[in-house]
Amino acid sequence: AEVNVSVNTIERILWQVHTNPLEAERFGADPTAYIKDFPLDPEERTWLTTFDAGAMAEAGVSSMVLMMAFQVLRGPQHMGEYMQSLGEARGRTMAARAAAGQAPQR
Predict the structure, then answer these.
(1) Are 82 and 70 in contact (CB under 8 A)?
(2) Which is deepest, 10, 21, 34, 102, by most CB within 10 Å?
(3) Are the C-beta atoms of residues 35 and 45 closer than 8 Å to each other?
């Protein structure tokens, strides 16, 4: 299987944010500046600067890494937002599959 370099880059950024409080502080203060030197396209940059967990999950980013970084950045009290974003992404994926005539996956 082909490995998506952007997914690996996003996961590396999120892992740094999750595991290093100084990195989390830098990212939280200015995500645009934090990611400026990483090889990401404009859409991926938007996912990170807005923390669009659903879009990143759809692209193949590990939901565990996403959840850990989200909790560090937004706090566990906002997990409902995280789950809503993943639910919206799942809905978009299912709608796209239905439009393409593919059977839904569970």
Answers:
(1) yes
(2) 10
(3) yes
| Per-residue pLDDT tens over the stretch 53-89 | 888 988 999 988 998 998 888 887 777 777 777 777 6
CB neighbours of 94 closer than 8 A, spacing ≥ 6?
Answer: 104
Q: What are phi and psi of 69, to 5 degrees?
A: -65, -40
pTM > 0.90: no
Q: Which two tokens stand for residue 54?
A: 């659903």
Compute CA distances 35 → 2, 26, 77, 78, whole Å: 24, 10, 26, 23
